[in-house]
Amino acid sequence: MKNKKIFLTLIAVVAIVSVFIFAYKTYAPQSAAGTKNITIEVVSADQTTKTYKVSTDAEYLEEAFAVTEGLEITNEEGPYGMTIAAVNGERADFEKDGAYWSIMVNGEYGMYGASEQVVNDGDVFQLVYTTDTGDLF
After folding, report:
1. Strand bridging mode 124-131 / 49-56
2. One domain for residues 96 and 63
3. According to the model, what pLDDT value does residue 95 have?
């Protein structure tokens, strides 16, 4: 009887995980093929902004970073996957002072990391040096 409950629980967990994977693949943003003209703005800790106009075939933002002349991105593996550690040499250290690089997409807080953020023609991306003030929740 105990083995039967464990087996049924295992089947239920596999079914739930399968539903989540299916939903993610079905409803996640899809990348668009072809050339896109985008803007990448970097907002530093001192609030200065540097703007890059980019024409790219990249499907995801991380790929667009790689072809943006003059833009230097340093990625690091963090507890939640790949994170942007530094932009143009300016490092954000969350452990030290609560700082991180946030990704804004067309004026709204990005819901995906750079490797999953789809690039569409006309998009404006901002990399904003952000500090956690503790007021988020």
Report:
1. unpaired
2. yes
3. 87
With respect to residue 137, please indicate whether it lies within any of the assigned structural domains.
no
Domain that holds residue 73: 36-131
Distances (CA, A) of 50 to 45, 72, 96: 12, 12, 25
Q: What backbone torsions phi and psi does residue 51 show, to the nearest 5 degrees?
A: -115, 135
Mean of all residue pLDDT scores within the chain: 87
Q: What is the pLDDT of residues 70-80, one digit of tens each?
A: 999 999 886 66
Into how many domains does the chain fold? 2
CB burial string 32-69: b at 16+ within 10 A, e below: eeeebebebebbeeeeeeeebebebebbbbbbbbeebe
10 beta partners: none
Give residue 25's pLDDT. Answer: 61
Predicted confidence (pLDDT) per residue in 11-70, tens digit: 888 888 887 777 666 665 555 667 999 999 999 999 999 999 999 999 999 999 999 999
Query: Which H/E stretch holds residue 105?
Result: strand 99-105
Q: Which amino acid is at 28?
A: A
> 24 and 56 in one domain?
no
